Amino acid sequence: MTIIARENRRERYALPSLQKVPEHVAIIMDGNGRWARQRGLPRSAGHRQGTDNLRRIIRAAVEFGVRIMTIYAFSTENWSRPRREVLLLMRILEMVIDRELQELHEEGVQIRHIGELDGISGRLARKVLEACEYTRHNQRLILNVAFNYGGRDEIVHAVQNIVRDGIMAEDISEATINSYMYTSDLPDPDLIIRTSGEFRLSNFLIWQGAYSEIYTTETYWPDFGRTELYEALVEYGNRRRRFGKTDDQIEAALAFERQLQESI
């Protein structure tokens, strides 16, 4: 049994162990501003609460056996937000690095940055790179932080680099393009979670998410806790991923696996 704590009640109760855990979970952390507005607070309060929430979700992901997590922290489109809010988001990232880096390192979290550092202050860019270097040998959880990231932008950069490397058109395959993506050495996300009730990817991992399961919830990101993550993983476990195959093909493959296990 897995023990889950609901922070707002301080009660502990047992939930069935997960039968199927996705290796790679990606999260679009949406709804900070609406969370704050509901409470008559400034948007900045929502962003700060959302940042604090990330800590418990990282711990829950480790507890449930997730090996890779990718979070959408700041998109290339977010530059169009009010300058004051953009500067706040930059300060929050710097504050998180300063405050959380050592603990994340001690808990075995490997931090990776996906996206571009262009346009970010030199000091913040250095801190991002230093955090990645400091934690690069950790293996308990790989945390991809998509900051100044856009899915289309990633594909454009991949194509540009393929051209720069002189690869002929007839030699380009899906595997070629994949090798130029930020996550080239990682499996694609099994599950993409979006909070706040939206039903779009918003330019997030649009190459890698081609066959990802999508899970949406009305819950705003600051309120998306361990229990909510558990529920998303349960839902994932109840789905059947076909990858273009028929149900009969899936059943035959599962039957073969069962026979193979029984023979061992």
- Poorly predicted sequence stretches spanning 5 or more consecutive residues: 1-12
CATH class: Alpha Beta
What shape does the CA trace take? globular
Q: For the largest sheet, list the strands in their spatial order.
A: 5-6-4-3-7-8
CATH superfamily: Decaprenyl diphosphate synthase-like
Main sheet makeup:
6 strands, parallel
Beta fraction: 15-25%
What string, H for helix and E for strand, traces the elements in order?
EEEHHEHEHEHHEEHH
What is the CATH topology assignment?
Undecaprenyl pyrophosphate synthetase
Number of helices: 8
Structural class: alpha/beta
CATH architectural category: 3-Layer(aba) Sandwich
Give the % helix: 40-55%
Rg estimate, integer Å: 20 Å
The tally of strands reads 8
Describe the structure.
With 264 residues, the chain is α/β, with parallel strands linked by helices. The longest helix has 24 residues, at 83-106. It contains eight helices and eight strands; from the N terminus they run βββααβαβαβααββαα. Helix content is 44%, strand content 17%. A hairpin with a 4-residue loop joins strand 1 (2-6) and strand 2. The chain has helices at 32-38, 43-64, 83-106, 122-134, 151-164, 174-179, 226-237, 247-263, and strands spanning 2-6, 11-15, 24-28, 68-75, 109-114, 141-149, 191-194, 213-216. The model is unreliable at 1-12 (pLDDT under 50). The strands form two sheets. Strands 5-6-4-3-7-8 form a six-stranded parallel beta sheet, sandwiched between helices. The protein has one domain (21-263): Decaprenyl diphosphate synthase-like (Undecaprenyl pyrophosphate synthetase).
